[in-house]
């Protein structure tokens, strides 16, 4: 069996994602300027910079304590639609790890699923609404399919599937969030939230494996 995930590994994941978001502020903002209000990059960068300072300034007793703090930090700093959605993801992700002794592949998969269920409960997105859920849903399926091969394989498969889901958002008509105000004009643009969600899974594959 693969090693269980440590608090340090989770912190590396969040820091890697914060760095990726920072390097891609321009891309995320450009995508959001086409079908939204051009703030997804700056929203996420602000939020994950705050997450990194929280990680650097605190010791945490458990993954659920760490992710609870991360979720609350995001809710209070990101704003927009994505703040509560990413915040809820990490709050639920953390809750799912409560009392878990060793976070192996199964436990990680359950926590990811709980996080995404939180996103859906909050945002009511369905498949093909052109949101971050279109990256998350295929990623969860791919994770579960590859889970018997271990955490590294499951995360790699999830990241690849998320990327495919993200790419598929381009041809979709937005039915949720700001982009939905554009109707047909939302078609032909990649969804910013599906793009950042894919980066989150790519960061996980790079750091948690
Ligand atoms: P805002 O739309 O408030 O400006 P952001 O620009 O930070 O917030 O985030 C936009 C992203 O949020 C979209 O690209 C989409 O992926 C995601 N999103 C918006 N509404 C929903 C929803 N109801 N469910 C899931 N994701 C959503
Ligand atoms: Mg926006």
The CATH first-level class comes to Mainly Alpha
> Rg, please?
16 Å
Helix content estimate:
55-70%
**Which regions contain 5 or more consecutive residues with pLDDT less than 50?**
none
Question: Hetero groups bound?
Answer: adenosine-5'-diphosphate, magnesium ion
Strand content bin = under 5%
CATH topology description: Serine Threonine Protein Phosphatase 5, Tetratricopeptide repeat
Q: How many domains make up the coordinates?
A: 1
* Structural class by sheet pairing and helices: mainly alpha
Mean pLDDT: 96
Element pattern in H and E: HHHHHHHHH
Number of helices: 9
The count of DSSP E runs of length 2 or more, i.e. the number of strands, is 0
- Categorize the overall geometry: globular
CATH architecture: Alpha Horseshoe
| End-to-end CA span | 13 Å
Taking the sheet with the most strands, its summary is: none
Overview of the molecule:
The chain is mostly helical and 209 residues long. It has one domain: Alpha Horseshoe (Serine Threonine Protein Phosphatase 5, Tetratricopeptide repeat), CATH 1.25.40. The protein is 68% helix and 0% strand. It has nine helices and no strands. The protein has helices at 7-23, 25-35, 40-57, 63-77, 82-96, 105-123, 133-146, 151-168, 192-207. Helix 2 (25-35) packs antiparallel against helix 3 (40-57), helix 5 packs antiparallel against helix 6 and helix 6 packs antiparallel against helix 7. The mean pLDDT is 96. The protein binds adenosine-5'-diphosphate and magnesium ion (MG). Residues 32, 36-37, 39-40, 80, 178 line the site of magnesium ion.
């Amino acid at each position: 069996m693969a090693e269980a995930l440590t608090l340090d590994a989770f912190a590396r994941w969040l820091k890697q994602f914060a760095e990726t978001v920072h390097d891609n502020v321009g891309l995320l903002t450009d995508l959001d300027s086409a079908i939204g209000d051009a703030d997804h990059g700056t929203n996420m960068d602000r939020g994950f910079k705050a997450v990194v300072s929280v990680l650097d300034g605190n010791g945490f007793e458990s993954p659920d304590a760490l992710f609870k703090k991360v979720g609350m930090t995001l809710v209070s700093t990101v704003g927009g639609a994505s703040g509560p959605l990413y915040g809820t993801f990490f709050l639920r992700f953390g809750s799912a790890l409560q009392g878990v002794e060793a976070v192996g592949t199964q436990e990680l998969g359950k926590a990811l699923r709980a996080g995404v269920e939180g996103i859906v409960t909050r945002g009511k997105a369905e498949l093909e609404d052109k949101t971050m859920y279109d990256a998350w849903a295929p990623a969860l399926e791919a994770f579960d399919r590859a889970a018997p091969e271990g955490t590294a394989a499951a995360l790699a498969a999830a990241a690849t599937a998320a990327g495919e889901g993200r790419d598929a958002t381009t041809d979709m008509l937005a039915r949720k969030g700001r982009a939905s105000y554009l109707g047909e004009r939302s078609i032909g643009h990649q969804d910013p939230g599906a793009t950042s969600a894919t980066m989150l899974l790519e960061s996980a594959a790079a750091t948690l494996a």
